Amino acid sequence: MKNITQILTGLFLFVAVNGVKAQASQECNIKYNLFKGDVTTKKYEKAKTDLDYLLTNCPTLSVNIYKYGAKAAEKTKDHALVKKVYEARLVNFPNKGTAKAHSDYATYLAKNKLATDDEIFAILEKAYAISPKDMGVKNIYKYFQGITDKYKDSNPQKVFDTYDDVMESVGEKLEDYTNKIAPLIAQDTTGTISAKDKKRLKAYTTNSKALGSVEGGLDNMISVLATCDRLIPIYTRDYEVNKGDGVWLKRAVSRMYNKGCQTDPLFEKLATSYAEVTQSSDAYNFLAGVLQKNGDAAGAKEMRKKAFDLETDPKVKAKLKLREAQGYGGSKGRALAYQALKYNPNLGKAYLYIASLYAKSANSCGSSVFEKKMVFVAALNKARKAQQVDPGCGAGRYIRSYKGNIPTKKEVFQQGVTPGSSHKVGCWIGETVRVPK
User: Fold this and answer.
1) Which pTM does this prediction carry?
2) CA distances for 378 relative to 116, 385, 398, angstroms
3) Fold held by 30-110
4) Domain covering 331-437 assigned CATH 1.25.40 in the classification
């Protein structure tokens, strides 16, 4: 009888405890739904009451408690609550969207002047260490500026490595946006796009342009630091230690190439090692450039073919073709750039390269000022096409430059031509464009 009593007591306690837990869980869900509803309907002050309950009693219910909570706190300018939500999120969801949480908090602190530059940079360092691609666009730039200021004199290699890491992350984000934008543009062109997808297209395009501007800003920042005079001694010094490191070699070769340091013997040494270590299409393509420079045109052609055939990703093939195109001018360069576009129609930089070829030929592809300026119309068209298919390719500065060189309304009038009429651009370009209105 005693044992039966003990068993019944145990069962009663078990049911009672679990009943309390179930009731508490139900209360958490009710509070959460009320809280979420208040935030989504912009009743931020009211939402804070349920937020306090959730933070105290249901901190691990959902990460959305902290996402919505941060919004309610920020909208009511409750700085103490913003900090509380941020810190509680890190405790209860340390591995879920943490980089973005750090980045957003840094943005809030900077916007409201609640922390020093050093304190904000320390938070951005945490975000960067977790996932650079999840940082806000402005914070990516701000972080790199901090690294540059801190290490440009004492450890420039640190700056270069950070630049490469950041650019790879930016590249990943840009490619993701480009992949999302392409099918939406196709729907928009045919008029089959939904209102929801139209909003998505606008958002993706805006974000992609912002990332593209960051890319240009980072390039401008590092261009002062990454000169041939500075790169060559650094890579010469570090070569022996890193000659078997494919990542280091790739970055060194790429930077030397982008800065126009190919004439130095070190470039050939780096490119050769890069090809031996990785045996990749990218490495063979750089090696082709070395062979070309050394007068071995046949060897260069064979090496480019080897690189191209080795690659299976059409987007990488497109980049290889574009790099080959960049070694030529005029119609040959344009033809290769168009070949690149066959493999990736959304490679905006291929259109930008064609645009730059046109712009460089302005003085030789027209017999009058008006005709020369009409060459810039052809260049502008290509730059606009680049921005359409690949908003993050950095087309904006090209567009601004070319727009400043097209014929004005006064010049069109003086020429005696009709605005909007067709005009055939001369010499190797041979494209028909519209006279500006």
Assistant:
1) 0.74
2) 49, 11, 12
3) 1.25.40
4) yes
